[in-house]
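Inputs:
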Amino acid sequence: MLSRRHFLTSLLTPAIVALAPNLISAQEGVFLDEEEAPRAVFPEGTHFEKKVVPSTEALREKMRGLLGRTRPSIWEDAYVTYLVRRHGERLGFAVIAEEIGKHRPITFVVGIKPNGKVKDVALMVYREAYGGEVRERRFMRQYHDKDLAAPLLPYRDIVNIAGATLSVQSIGRGVKKALVLAQLVLLDGAGRP
Amino acid sequence: MKRLLTLFVVLSVGLTAVGTALGATLDDLERQLQAIQKQIQELKEEKQRQDQKIREMEAAQAAQKEEVKKEAASLREQARRVSSELAERVRIGGYGSVRFEGNSLKEQSNTFTFRRFVLTADAKPADPMQVYMELEFERFTQLELERTTRPQDGGLRVAQAIEGTDGSEISFEQLWFQYDLYPWLKFRTGQVLVPLGRFNINHDDNRWNIARRSLVDRGVPVLPVKSAWPELGAGFLGDIRLGELGKLTYEAYVINGVALDAEVENIAQTRDPRRDKLELEVEFQPSRGTAKLDMKDSKAVATRLAWSPYPGQEIAGSFYYGRYTPQFLSDESIVAFAIDGLTTIGPFEIEAEYVNTHFRNVDRVARSFARVVVDQSANIPSSVSPTFEAEVEFELAGLARNKHGYWIEGRYRFWPEFLTSTVFGKYFENPQLIAIVRGEQVWLNGLVREAEFEGGVLTKLEQENRRLYRVTAGLAYRPTPLVVFQLAYEYTKTDKGRSLAEVTNFLPAQSDEDEAHAILVGVAFGF
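Outputs:
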């Protein structure tokens, strides 16, 4: 009896240790720095032109108007944005945004196409102890091609992650904020960057 | 002529005298004037000196004020940094829940229940390390100990009184240290939640929409110990990404594990016409393992492996194996396994869990127990004490050859737009109403009903098969993800003519009450 238990115990640990390291992910952490962020959402981009948009009270007021029922938990002092080109062709904008999860801010980058739709979203910094699954590509893929008309809410148009509902809701808020900023400041009237 | 000359002389002398006198006065005046001017100059200089001094003093005061201001600002910054660092390293949270219940039972038809308040703390001693704690106060209102020691009646009198309320419990639901050895391998040790099924590891009340926990996990525990079930041990956990195939999540621990442990109950009873009674009942039942010296020379293993092909979809298998008998009884083990899952399709969710627990050789354990205890009970015969009876009794409880059961819960989330402008919607970003239906069944096969023994020999072991099912339907309102208002109707039924109290740990049914209807209203919150 004892030896069987010992056998089972000793079997489990090495089996787990033997798993390939690059297959496994962590919760908290810094996953992208500011320089890497636009490349994460526009990997095909060749030129990244940084532009800092000050977050003035007038801009916030306009953003509030477009955000409707979505109420940001953070108003950034300024928005770090990148105009992304591939050999001269304009691909879109990358906007760095922040929103509070349960206790702490989540920082992420939103890639926005010239038509005002989401190209991609990538997590830059996750500071919560739980809910780090929002970092996964398969979760972030849900935001592809979403625009301002989308609710971006769990159980509406975004599949929730059990135990991370607040983080899921935060990412949705942040994506909306980035889309609104693009609409007001980055894209021209014809919807071109 | 002479008179004219005389007049001239007199006038000259007079004028000379006057002139001399006048000249002397002007000199004096000039001197005085100079003296005054000098004094004025000195006063001016003195004033300038004083002004300079004042200016210097004012400048010094201003500099001093600036210095104080700077120091205060620096102190404030320091305090802010310290508190921010502390906030970064330690996060306090928690959850709590209360319930009102009205039911059809004869004995107790309605009650408020303080389900629990759990305080959580999450700290990071260093970047790859984490300490997590959940301290639970369940059905808790107070616990007070009074003790007096004093000489009395020619001897020493020590009196002790424990004051508390029924069911009050303080417990560490979790208390562990985690070291992320590599980003892909996390080592955890301490009081960890046993990963058998999905409820135990996701047991926070504010995550669920019905104000009563499931039968297999709590009310008729098929889990070896009712949830929340932590054990002291160590192990590993992590997530394994499989690319397009999704994600695997694993947890694997070696723990002290469940053991038959004694619960000592004191009963004082007045009876008429029988003798009044003072009873000491020692009940041995499967209990959470000790945090001190393990009472068995054997550890248990528990592991869970979950596969999530897509977000919102998960299926998992879990397993528990370990000795459940203390060292002084024959060596017998528990084998338990669970299958659980979650699927999400838009606003619909289905979540389910099946648990199967097998206590090996319950009859052998009963015989072994009889051998060790020798006599099931001992009391003072009425011939010795005609009005008062004292008894000590040993019992085996909570054992069954096999227990198994499941719960399956369907949820539909919606929000009528007309509520958006009301108080239920206008303050919240994503309020939800959730319609819930939960179905549950439990089978208890070979449930030990009575074990009688005398002189170290088991004389009777009565076992029975019992079945119980429950259906719950309700509506929950979630203004935010952390807060839920719960309303549900619940119907519970066991074998015809048999009491629900015999198989559940939450329904005070009488011996003929085999069914119960209940309305549950609850609030659960997290922060």
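Remarks. The helical segments of chain B are 2-89, 215-219, 362-373. Chain B touches chain A through 49 residues (CB under 8 Å).
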